[in-house]
Design a protein that fits this description.
Length: about 100
């Protein structure tokens, strides 16, 4: 089965809404929720989660990866507004990459 980039982008857009609204903090948790609320997007949400996992390497969250690589301050907390904006921008970049495939 090939990747459906449009559905992966759709899953990310829905996850973005959850993060922007504050109902979720972490991208992968938001994707899990998208899958539970939109059964047809489960495979796409899982593919995006795998893609994120591959990108983060040994770090389990964008927060941990970003801190380790010096993109955010070590005294920032996972739910800080600045980190939320960072996550949203990261999601936007992933959506853009998927929409150009």
């Amino acid at each position: 089965m090939g990747k459906d980039y449009a559905k992966m982008a759709e899953a990310l857009k829905l996850a973005r809404v959850l993060i922007e609204s504050g109902s979720e903090v972490y991208v992968c948790y938001a994707l899990d929720k998208v899958g539970s609320e939109h059964e047809e997007l489960i495979p796409s949400a899982e593919q995006v989660t795998f893609w994120i996992s591959e990108a983060l390497g040994t770090h389990s969250t964008v927060f941990g990866w970003s801190r380790h690589n010096g993109y955010i301050s070590h005294n920032m907390l996972p739910a800080d507004v600045q980190l939320k904006e960072y996550r949203l921008a990261w999601i936007d970049n992933m959506i853009q990459a998927l929409e150009t495939e």
